[in-house]
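Recap from last week: sequence in, structure out.
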Amino acid sequence: MRHVVRVAGGAVLALLVCGVLSVPLLLWPVGLGMAPDRRWMPGPPSLGLVVAVAVACAAVCLGGGVLLVVRGALAAGAGLAGGWGVAVLLSGGWLAGLAPDLYAPEGMYRAYADPFSALSVDEAAQRAQAELRGATGRDLPEQKARVGGCWTYDGGRRGLVEPPGSGMLEYRATLPTPPGQGQDEVDRIARRLARDHKPTGRSYEAAFQSRDGFVVQLLPGDGDTGVVVTVRSPCLRSV
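Predicted structure tokens:
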């Protein structure tokens, strides 16, 4: 029983030591999840810091474990060294500075990066106008804008960047309806779009995405009169 306690004590000590040492590393994924906007997302810990944590954790646990074994404290040494292995397995390497994402951070940013379309500006404009006509069912006066907000991973900077000149095309038109029937028309158009578009955005939004990344958003106009239809292209390298 005494040996079991010593093994467990060594393992707990290893987990505590590696846990404390890895706090600067764990703050990175926490910061990614808490960032209010992609421009405020923290960069990954430096490679030097990652290596230092990995070396320190291994030195304390593995080196200390071997030293204890040499001095005759076999159970405690085995627990300390085994605790390092447990820390690696349970955390996927994060508690020991060995997680692959710490050395190649692109995977951590993949969920936050935008896919870029291969369409030219002219092709994207034609597609956006076609989506607008498809949603409204007619040609209407439209407003055109170029908007930013496209982010991609930059290996040199080891983080997300907004490429200069990139962005999306946005087309907007208002479909007239009788007073008080804007939401009814939104629902009607939404049912039609749902046949060949997939819902996107928040659950309470009437927004649909085409197979090639064009998003159609429907909103009732002021006073529930008319429908504001907005079509946004996928991200383009140059707008």
